[in-house]
C-alpha cells in the first residue's frame, strides 16, 4: 500500500506538470488580450504596452511558463490580472462552497443510485425496475442547467419552499441546508442515474453467483444474503463509479454554480476565462485536477478494505 501511494504521488506530480503546461499554452494562445480587457476601451497603445510589461506578457511564452513553474515550486499560484488578489487566497475563499456542493451532490447520488440499483436488481422485471430504468435514462439525458431551472421554478418561485440560489449561510445551519438542496439535487441527478445502472448490473451478476446460492441453501436469511454476501462484492465497481463521479462533480459545478449563483470555484473559473485572467484559470484547473487524482487514490485504498483479496504489492 505504501508503494502504491508513493507511485501515485509521483504520477500526480507528472500529471499536474502536463496539465499546467496544456492549460498555460491554451490560455496564452487563445484569442483575446488581457491587457485590452484590463485597460478598457479608452486605453491607448502605450497604455496597453505598459500593462503587458507589468504582467510579464511581453516575455517569450516558454519564459513565462518557466516563471510560472518556479512560482509553483515555491507554493505561489500567482496573482489575479484583474483584482491583483492572490490566486491561492481567492480559491481558498470559494473552495468550501464548491466542496460542500460536490459532497452534498455525491451523497444524494449514492443514496438514490445505490438504493434504486439494489432494489431494481432484487425485483428484476418488476414495475419498480422498469420505472427505475426510465428515470435513470432521463437523469442521464437531462441537462443540469435545464433541470436546475425547472427546480427553481417549481420549489422556489411557485411553491416558495426553498431559496432561488446562493450559498452564503453558515455551514450546517437550516438556511444552509435549504440553499444547498436544489443545487445538490441538480448536480447529483446525473451521477445518481449512472450509479443506479451500475449498481443494478453488478448486483444482478452477484446474486446469481454460486456462493450466494450456497448461502441461501444453508438457510441464511435473505437480508443477510443481500446485505453481507452480495452487496459487499457488488460494491467494487460501484465504488469506482462513485469516485470518478465525485471527481467529475468538482469540475461539473461550473454550470450549477452559475444557475444557482453559488460563489464557488466554478463560477470563479468562468469569470476568469471571460476576462482572460490566466493565473486564476490555471490555479483553479490545477486544484480540480489534484483533487481528482487524490480521490482516485482514496478509491484504490478503499478497495482493499471492501475486498481483502485485492493487493497492490
Can you describe what's shown?
- This protein has 313 residues and is mainly α.
- It has two domains: 2-73, no CATH class; 95-306, MetI-like fold (Orthogonal Bundle), CATH 1.10.3720.
- The chain is 78% helix and 0% strand.
- It has helices at residues 2-29, 34-39, 45-55, 61-73, 87-122, 127-141, 144-158, 174-207, 210-217, 222-259, 265-274, 278-306.
- The N and C termini lie close together (7 Å).
Summarize the structure.
The chain contains 12 helices and no strands.
List SSEs in N-to-C order.
Answer: HHHHHHHHHHHH
The largest β sheet comes out as: none
* Low-pLDDT regions: none
CATH topology (fold) name of the largest domain? MetI-like fold
For the record, give the distance between the C-alpha atoms at the N and C termini, rounded to a whole number: 7 Å
Task: Tell me the total number of β-strands.
Answer: 0
At the fourth CATH level, what is the homologous superfamily of the largest domain? MetI-like
Structural class: mainly alpha
CATH class of the largest domain: Mainly Alpha
Query: How helix-rich are the residues, as a percent range?
Result: over 70%
- Integer average pLDDT: 83
At CATH level 2, the architecture of the largest domain is Orthogonal Bundle
Shape: globular
Radius of gyration: 24 Å
Amino acid at each position: 500500500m505504501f508503494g502504491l501511494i508513493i507511485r501515485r504521488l509521483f504520477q500526480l506530480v507528472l500529471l499536474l506538470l502536463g496539465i499546467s503546461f496544456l492549460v498555460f499554452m491554451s490560455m496564452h494562445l487563445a484569442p483575446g488580450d488581457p491587457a485590452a480587457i484590463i485597460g478598457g476601451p479608452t486605453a491607448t497603445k502605450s497604455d496597453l504596452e505598459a500593462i503587458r510589461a507589468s504582467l510579464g506578457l511581453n516575455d517569450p511564452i516558454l519564459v513565462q511558463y518557466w516563471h510560472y513553474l518556479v512560482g509553483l515550486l515555491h507554493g505561489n499560484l500567482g496573482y489575479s490580472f484583474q483584482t491583483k488578489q492572490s490566486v491561492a487566497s481567492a480559491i481558498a475563499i470559494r473552495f468550501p462552497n464548491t466542496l460542500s456542493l460536490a459532497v452534498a451532490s455525491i451523497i444524494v447520488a449514492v443514496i438514490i443510485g445505490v438504493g434504486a440499483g439494489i432494489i431494481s436488481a432484487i425485483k428484476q422485471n418488476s414495475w419498480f425496475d422498469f420505472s427505475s430504468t426510465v428515470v435513470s435514462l432521463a437523469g442521464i439525458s437531462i441537462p443540469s442547467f435545464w433541470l436546475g431551472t425547472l427546480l427553481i421554478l417549481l420549489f422556489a418561485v411557485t411553491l416558495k419552499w426553498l431559496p432561488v440560489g446562493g450559498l452564503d449561510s453558515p455551514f450546517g445551519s437550516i438556511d444552509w441546508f435549504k440553499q444547498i438542496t436544489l443545487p445538490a439535487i441538480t448536480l447529483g441527478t446525473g451521477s445518481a442515474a449512472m450509479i443506479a445502472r451500475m449498481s443494478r448490473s453488478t448486483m444482478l451478476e452477484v446474486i446469481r453467483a454460486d456462493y450466494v446460492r450456497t448461502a441461501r441453501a444453508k438457510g441464511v436469511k435473505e437480508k443477510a444474503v443481500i446485505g453481507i454476501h452480495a452487496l459487499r462484492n457488488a460494491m467494487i465497481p460501484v465504488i469506482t463509479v462513485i469516485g470518478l463521479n465525485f471527481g467529475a462533480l468538482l469540475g461539473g459545478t461550473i454550470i450549477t454554480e452559475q444557475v444557482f449563483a453559488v460563489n464557488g470555484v466554478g463560477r470563479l473559473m468562468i469569470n476568469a476565462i471571460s476576462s482572460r485572467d490566466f493565473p486564476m484559470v490555471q490555479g483553479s484547473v490545477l486544484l480540480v485536477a489534484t483533487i481528482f487524482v487524490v480521490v482516485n487514490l482514496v478509491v484504490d485504498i478503499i478497495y482493499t478494505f471492501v475486498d481483502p483479496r485485492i493487493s497492490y504489492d
